[in-house]
Specification:
single chain, 334 residues, Rossmann fold, 2 domains, 7-stranded mixed beta sheet, 4-stranded parallel beta sheet, binds beta-D-galactopyranose
């Protein structure tokens, strides 16, 4: 009985000490959907380097596009006692379950690049994804034939990724009025499961089989699916004759732009996003509330959000953007 107050004191001291130590050197759990697209490797490396510079440690998990595995990844990060979670969800709806466990463990959650829906997350950091879609469609529209209806194919991203819906929404903002006015005809459209290039190729093959070779543009939502579509176009001798859009400034896509088989990509300065996310994660782990520039309703709350700007890139400005920023070396583009 007599020892009780002392034990309580020791215990509370231990707790304070742990909290203090973790605040000075926070541990961040980074859960990625995939490392398949080149960009995510860069996101991971830039984020980790920036967080370490700020005194944090980062534990990285990648789920290979598997929802069950990603929920398990997040739960294991929670049980390892991370101070904050940064998540790129494979499935923005399914990830709500893991956020619930994080909330119960009082671990703040930051959604990185892709939104987590219907769950009480703390921050959402991304690019202006509707603008991405608008820029893709606007680029194509500016180059459509003026004397007849333009014939296009639309390849959307993964239906499980909220971004894919926002890219489509941006494209719709530009295309729907033209479709309604009879200036554009969508020959074929489909969603590429898990953003896989081979699904982009399948969609393109289906379009060519059904509608023949008379085609003006393929609005592909990212470089991976654009690559798949361009393979199908190549097999039909159409590569370079049909305008193809993309996104991410993947090395292969930049090479295709220089070769003329892909018209454009969207360059997202990942360094800005990853560095910002590292700073926000460390601040949140230290119990601070970093300022957001806006909010986005994810179905559960208005999530404090920050959106970075994107740049439309083609042959004309590839050097002054992607190369000048050292995103790719000029020598690697050849
Ligand atoms: C999106 C992301 C894109 C693209 C795609 C496939 O969510 O915003 O940059 O890479 O996923 O991973």
């Amino acid at each position: 009985m007599k020892l009780r107050p002392l034990t309580a004191l020791a215990l509370s001291f231990a707790l304070v000490a742990t909290a203090f130590a973790s605040k000075e050197k926070p541990v961040i759990g980074l859960s990625l959907d995939t490392l398949k697209e080149e960009r995510w490797q860069r996101d991971r490396d830039t984020f980790t380097a920036a967080a370490e510079k700020l005194g944090a440690t980062v534990i990285v998990q990648s789920a290979n596009s598997d929802d069950t595995r990603q929920v398990r990844d997040v739960e294991s990060l929670i049980s390892r006692g991370v101070d904050v979670l940064v998540i790129v969800p494979h499935n923005g709806e399914a990830m709500g379950r893991a956020v619930k466990s994080a909330t119960e463990a009082k671990i703040p959650v930051i959604a990185y690049d892709r939104l987590i829906k219907n769950a009480p997350i703390d921050y959402y950091l991304s690019f202006d994804n509707v603008k991405v879609g608008e820029a893709q469609a606007a680029y194509a529209v500016a180059r459509f034939p003026q004397d007849r209806k333009a014939r296009i194919v639309r390849i959307y991203g993964a239906p499980t990724d909220n971004n894919a819906k926002m890219f489509k929404q941006g494209q719709d903002n530009i295309l729907l009025p033209l479709i309604a006015a009879g200036k554009v005809e969508v020959l074929h459209e489909d969603w590429a499961q898990d953003w896989k290039p081979e699904n982009g190729k399948k969609i393109m093959n289906a379009a060519l089989t059904k509608h023949g070779r008379s085609l003006d543009a393929v609005i592909a939502s990212n470089d991976g699916t654009a690559g798949g579509a361009i393979q199908a176009l190549t097999e039909d001798g159409l590569a370079g004759k049909v305008l193809v859009t993309g996104q991410d400034a993947d090395l292969a896509a930049c090479q295709r732009i220089l070769r003329g088989t892909q018209a454009m990509t969207i360059y997202k300065p990942l360094k800005n996003l990853a560095t910002l996310a590292a700073r926000v994660a460390v601040d949140v782990a230290k119990g601070q509330k970093p300022a957001a520039t806006g909010t986005l309703d994810n179905g559960a709350k208005k999530v404090p959000s920050i959106f970075e700007q994107v740049i439309s890139v083609d042959k004309e400005n590839l050097q002054s953007t992607v190369v000048a920023d050292a995103f790719h070396k000029a020598a690697d583009l050849k």
